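Support reply, case 0932

Customer input (verbatim):
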Amino acid sequence: MRSNARSLITAILALVAGILLSGSSVLAADYSVDFGVETEANKDAGSLMCLFDQTCSAKIEALGLRVSIDVFRSNPERAHVHLYGGDLGCCYFDGAADSIIIDPRKPLSRVPFFKGARARGGLYIKNERVGTLYLRFDSR
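Our regenerated output:
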């Protein structure tokens, strides 16, 4: 009987500790990001809870894309955004850049993205527009 009671108490303590630890990680977020991606074929959206000085990313299953965002505590008015696709020719931003910098203080950022070739040297490459990435930041 005592063994069962100890096991039950241990299980309850482990459960409570797990809840407290998972709750504290959510409370520890420095900012959140609502994102959406729209293409001719499909659209998807989601939210992220992020920490300054750490890459924050999400997989956008419906479109086969991944978005990653970096915001540094030393420069919080600049968000570094990358968008990756399963296709080697996707995804680039204006001027065939593989990343962009946006101002997270704006209410909503609408960023067109393209597929094609990566920029090389001083060449300007015009790629085919695939869709739009929408980003909305909220500081905690």
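We compared this against your earlier run and they match. Two observations from our side: The chain is about 20% helix and 50% strand. The first strand starts at residue 31 and ends at 39. Please reopen the case if you see a mismatch on your end.
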